[in-house]
Amino acid sequence: MTRKWSRIAKAEYQVSTVSFRENRTRNITILYALGLIWALFLAPYIIGIMADFIIPIEILQIILINMLPGFMRAAMFFIWILILIIPLSRSLQEIKIGQWEIFLSNNVSTRDILIGTFIGRIPLYGLLVLFITPPFLVLFFLAFEVALLGQILTYLTLFLMILTTIWLANLITAAIQAKLGESSRGKDIANGVAILLAIVSIVPIYGIMFFSQHFSVILGLNVFLLFPFTWPADVISWITIHSSQIGFSVEQILAFQQILNFDLLFSTALMSIFTIAVVGIGLASADRIFTYNIGARTEQVTTITREHFVIRGIRKLAPGSFGSLVVTCFKDFFRRASNISKIAYGIILAVVLPFIMSQIMINIGDVGGFDMMALIMVGGIGMAMIGGYTFSGTAFMESKDQLWIIQSTPSGTARYVKARLVSAFIIAIPLGFIPALVMTLLSGGTLDRFLFLVAYGYVIIAGAIMFGTGVTAWNPYYEDTKSPEHQMNVIITTMGAQFTLFAPILITMFGDMAGLPFWNMIHDAVGATGMPYAFALISMISLLIVGSLALVIGVKRLSRPEI
Amino acid sequence: MAKLIRRCLLFSLEVKRMHNGVTIQTQKLSKTFGHVHAVRNLTLEVHQGTRFGFLGPNGAGKTTTVRILSGLMQQSSGTARVCGLPLDSKRNKIKAVTGLLPETPGLYSKLSAVEFLEFIGALNDRNGDSLHNRIDRLLALLGLESRQDDLLESYSSGMKQKVLIASTLLHEPELVFLDEPTARLDPSASVIVKELIEILAQATGTTFFICTHQTSFAEDVCDQIGIINEGQLVASGSVQDLISATKVKNLEEAYLQIVGGKVDREALLTWR
Predict the structure, then answer these.
(1) CA distance B96 to B125
(2) CA dist., res. A454 & res. A429, Å (int)
(3) Which ipTM score applies to this complex?
(4) What are the C-alpha distances in Å from A470 to residues A481, A557, B108?
(5) Among positive and negative, which fits the CA dihedral B34, B35, B36, B39?
(6) What are the boundaries of each domain within chain B?
(7) Would you list which residues of chain A are within 8 Å, Cβ to Cβ, of chain B?
(8) pLDDT over threshold 50, residue A187
(9) Nearest-CA distance from A334 to chain B in Å?
(10) Which end of chain A is more exposed for a tag (fewer CB within 10 A), N or C?
């Protein structure tokens, strides 16, 4: 008799490799072959050439010796996030409890489901390991002349860590899905949690991107010995050290011992205990996960009470039917946990981006961190990202049937989109203030600078909202944020808005290089101190124009009868 | 306000004058999706105040026809007039005088029934006390008054269907398209909907275009029937006409004879 978990594993494998369904086995085999070629030959070759070109290997060795423990922990942390949180976040956005109920009604145990799902995902994650991890490791292999056995042990350690992480991700996802699934309220909470998880994963990625040096130092702290990603990282560091053919001195090894705290044996033991514990807990608790909350789970009826003062204020300001539409959009937005998470994400971005940008300015030599032109550019990037990400297509419509209902009313689509736009403009008001305040404080600015940044920031956010709403109306989606349409809309909106902001500056600069006196004309008109403000004004106007155009095109497309 | 009411009245009179008793008139209406012919040369006339039942098997083209006639979808060829208005050039005006109940509920899960109906009212340019009174009365009629302030996410599919029916009737359309109106309703709610359709048709002259699989519902409610199969109108007439023409006892048998689908009892166990 076929074991049930193997059938589930096969189904999971077929789902995860659906893009290659025409010639699944052949294509996956080719991909594995390419992955091996990349990991064993191409990556070492390319990275070796690049390293030689940038920095001599002797100097690289000295740098990497100092960086090894911290960098390895940072790299493992990145992989941990990638494998644990991102799939978790994605699966939370698509809770399908019905699938579980079909399994359970066919007398399949939760343990079989977990094992089947886990094994079914291994081939895809194996590919991920082959393609993503070599750049992290090859430089160390080259610099420390790591022996072949050492390289193999490193990849095996990494593979073990990844398998443990996938198992853990499956277990947590199953538990959360069992708890939150079935009810739409639970699904909504899951969506909110998913976006918060994305924030948790994105902030460290920004950290690695912009503060890698400080980040490595931070991760070198003893407190990180408590985190499971540290143990395999330290095991890999020790394997690299012990199998290095450059010959570390006793003093150097003692120095590593001081940084890493635990030796190879102890780190390996911790890693193995964690793996066994996670697998054991998973197997032991599997059949209880789903039965814990069987039944109504989080089903809860929410009853609407009296409208609060903001809604009443909008009704007073716009007492007609359009005011009612704005109020509806406002209520719909704030009752979704995922939107609250997006606002939180926007606020975090609003606070974090000025810091990151000031770090970039310092890195490129501007010791003060900001000047007015930089503030405008930095502010523009940040605001466009906040407006674009937070509002582009957020819960635009729940289903195509909703669109049919709206389209079946006279000029309904255009009025609906306008109402959404107005409600987004209202919601965005505080988002304009926070980054302006952070940027003013970072640049030691004055009240007039703050007021300018508030006005500038709000107009950019409003422009990005218009642009994003237009893009979403042009390419609507009816699922949650997991859909490719939503992701494409977010990318088009943020990139498009940022490009539109800087297009005038680029045109002026290239025009100047081509002999067209745009730069001088503006300079003559407003003087040197007025230049940043002139560019701010031009950027704002261009984004508002492009945003309005996108909106008109989007609404026209959404309103037209289906062909 | 007075101006707006006057404009509405004039528009309503104009519409009534224009359609001259015929609410839906189609001429060789066709719709193709690639190589699939969803609707083929549909020629149809539905008179004012008629309760027209549009029957047909799954995928026969019923929903596509409704979407075309309500201005949501462009036909591939052919012409149509809805409430006397040409479909190609007066879509917005057609939408103002028609109501549509879609096949599956497209509700906002994070709004209450009252809020959703207020939203639909606002889309039809209505608001204020008159709208709210109407919402309260419709929800009471459909037995939802005790749950009217609960978020729609906690409603059963039947309750959602009732809210959608209320939303379809809210702006008093002249022509109402109902796509499977009683599919998710319990027997008592179905009776209310049947009565509502009959009384609205009789008292206000509202025309109903009802897509359904339920022949018993169609037999009870509709005075005219059209049967569509593979995109083509294969039979039309009153319920009695169809029963007489096919020499059977009821509409279900007439439908089965026209469309096919008699059950071969011996074949039912062959899959084992």
Answers:
(1) 10
(2) 9
(3) 0.79
(4) 17, 10, 21
(5) positive
(6) 45-260
(7) 183-185, 188, 299-305, 319-325, 328, 331-332, 335-336, 397-412, 415-416, 561-563
(8) yes
(9) 9
(10) N
Which residue in the block uniquely carries the two structure tokens 């009174």? B133
Give the gap in angstroms from C-alpha A557 to the nearest C-alpha of chain B.
13
* Residue type present at position A296: A
Burial of B257 (0-12, 13-18, 19+ CB in 10 A): middle
Give the 3-state secondary structure of residue A307. Answer: coil
B203 versus A223: which is more confidently predicted?
B203
Residue among B93, B95, B119 with most chain A CBs within 10 A, to mutate: B119
CA atoms of A340 and A475, how far apart (whole Å): 23
Where does the pLDDT of residue A293 fall: very low under 50, low under 70, confident under 90, or very high at 90 and above?
very low
Question: B111 vs A403: CB contact, 8 Å cut-off?
Answer: no
Chain A: nearest CA to B67, how far in angstroms?
A: 9
Question: Per residue, what are the HEC states of A180-197?
Answer: HCCCHHHHHHHHHHHHHH
A32's enclosing H/E stretch is: helix A24-37
Closest CA to B103 of B24, B163, B182: B182
Which of B18, B33, B103, B3 is closest to A402 using CA atoms?
A: B103
> What is B45-260's CATH topology?
Rossmann fold (3.40.50)
* Pair B231, B40: CB distance under 8 Å: yes
Q: Which residues of B touch A414 (CB under 8 A)?
A: none
How many A×B Cβ pairs under 8 Å? 130
Query: What are the residues facing A151 on neighbouring strands?
Result: none
Task: Say how far apart CA B238 and CA B223 lie, in whole Å.
Answer: 6
Rounded Cα gap, residues B56 and B71, in angstroms: 21
Q: How many Å lie between the alpha carbon of A190 and the closest alpha carbon of chain B?
A: 15
In chain B, DSSP finds a helix count (H) and a strand count (E) of 10, 10
Residues of A in contact with B120 (CB under 8 A): 405, 409
Span of A128-137, A143-152, A193-202, A306-315 with lowest mean pLDDT: A193-202
Q: Do residue B154 and residue A561 have CB atoms under 8 angstroms apart?
A: no
**How many angstroms separate the Cα of A563 from the Cα of each of A145, B76, B104?**
63, 8, 20
